[in-house]
Amino acid sequence: MSVIIARSGVAAAIFVVSAQGALADLSAQDVWADWKAYLTSTGYTVSGTEAVSGSTLTVSDVSMVMPIPEEDGSGTVSFPEIQFVENGDGTVNVLLPAEFPLGFKFSGEGESFAGKLIYAHDGAPMKVSGDAESMKYDYTSSKVTMTLDELTADGEAVPADVANVEIVMNDVATQTVMKIAGARNYDQALTASSLSYDMGFNDPESNGTGSFKGALQGLSFTGTSTVPANLEGPDMAALLRAGFAFDGTFSFTGGNGAVSGADGSENFAMESNSQGGSIAVAMDRQHMTYDVSQIGTNVNISGSEIPFPLALSMAETGFKLMMPLAKSEEEQDFALGITLRDFAVPDMLWGMVDPTGQLPHDPATVVLDLAGKGKVLFDLFDPEAMEAVESGDEQPGELNALTVKQLQVSAAGAELTGTGSFTFNNEDLVSFDGMPAPSGEADLKLTGANTLIDKLIGMGLMSDSDAMGARMMMGMLAVPGEGEDTLTSKIAISEDGQIHANGQRIK
User: Fold this and answer.
1) Could you tell me the CA-to-CA distances from 260 to 206, 210, 272 in Å, in that order?
2) Which of 231, 245, 267, 448 fits as disulfide partner to 226, beta carbons 3.0 to 4.6 Å?
3) What are phi and psi of 422, to 5 degrees?
């Protein structure tokens, strides 16, 4: 996401940005010169024919071409002309054509394809204010669309009815503030009332079809980024080494989508909707964080391989990840979280495993929140180092500490909760069969387990001998807690490898 915002063709055409400061005179040449400086510094080749008439700078036959890292291909943005018009008050309007093409081409492994997207908007200008080292871009459009116009594969044109892409945004407003002080620092914001997409393919040889349609409402984005100056090329490793950083959050208030496909007699379809969500991404040379969440999600699935339609619902879903990216002999923080709250399945599905309704059919919940410290022993964006790790020639890293901030698993009337904290001795790989030796404590609580076991026996899903083994294990590791059918356990692992459960040594 950071690379797209920093250097995509659309960013080059629409979201090239600037910094807030005291309003001062800007010339048309100042703005165009800054475009060229920014684009060439991030890997683009920029060309165009300049002509000045009064207060207007017109650049004709504009081409912006960027090679795509690690691919034999390129992306191209072309304009018949761009006009930079001085407004007489120290600001400049940038006039882009109402339609212009975004081209792309790739080749590799004996195959190639190329195409062209048409970007269209209502023709409203971008207004640039500030001065040569501090610019602010404001832009609004009642409607923005991107439509697939051409596609070729191995040099042959692909018919229009074989592939289609259309993306539409309504009531778009963007503001980007930029300062140049060695590196370029950006502060960006975007809102749109809605975004819709319609993509599909139809393979005439296999009769396979696919369709992807959907819409989002109430879109907003805020973010900051730092783009270093004097880059040698557009590869991520070089960007990060030079000081690239990004921190942004995209959110929406509601959405729906539909995916369907068919291949001969087989077919599949899925429809979903939600009451909103967000995606937050941050990255710099040391760390990357990713946090996605969604609320009020409903999913309906059907297909030739599914015996009956499935209707699933989730009150909350989430995934978060924080991981170090750079090699370091010092400990670095990491985190992992998964949330699946109030996950409900249809009674028809329950009826397959519990036809007499002996189990509670309450929605299930799974929550896991982990944090820790470790060492990364290679740079994740270094291809040679990654290859050495994958081949087993280098160790990827060390786990030094792990904290279970929250554990919650509830289903069918039983619930397990817990917390814990452990450190790991990477010099002891013997005590726990090749795993760094842990030491620390965990506190666990289990409710409803014996009741669930009794019901599983009555349903014929668990034998008496299996139940006896499970109860013996719980008796070894847990003690009765407060409340009916409640067990608690404190598991402690000492530095010398001993394991105690509730004070009793079990290893």
Assistant:
1) 16, 6, 12
2) 245
3) -140, 150
